[in-house]
Design goal:
- The structure is a single chain.
- This protein has helices spanning 9-21, 23-48.
- It is mainly α and 77 residues long.
- The protein has a domain at 7-52.
- α1 crosses α2 (23-48).
- The longest helix is centred in the middle third of the chain and has 26 residues, at 23-48.
- It is elongated, with a radius of gyration of 30 Å.
- The model has no long low-confidence stretch (mean pLDDT 84).
- This is NADH-ubiquinone oxidoreductase 9.5 kDa subunit.
- The chain crosses the membrane at residues 24-45.
- Residues 55-67 have a biased composition (Pro residues).
Length: 77
């Protein structure tokens, strides 16, 4: 009987063995795969539960709506 072509069989065996022998490498691989998936999945879930992004932080200090008065005192005299 001819062998069946299984393209990911060696990868699966490696991950299975690594999960038992070197769990740090295995979990690093799993977290590395989950990260990009979360970028696509998490924002719609947050919006579904009512998350509203905060307003943007002001880039400048608001100036008062009045004429400016000259400064006097200390070294300005």
């Amino acid at each position: 009987m001819a062998s069946v072509f299984r393209p990911f069989q060696r990868s699966y065996n490696y991950l299975f063995r690594t999960a038992h022998e070197k769990p740090v490498i295995f979990y690093s691989f799993v977290l590395g795969l989950i990260g990009p998936v979360m970028v696509a999945v998490v924002p719609p879930i947050r919006e579904h539960y009512g998350y509203v992004p905060p307003p943007p932080i002001p880039a400048s200090y608001p100036l008062p709506n009045r004429p400016r008065q000259p400064i006097s005192g200390y070294e300005d005299e």
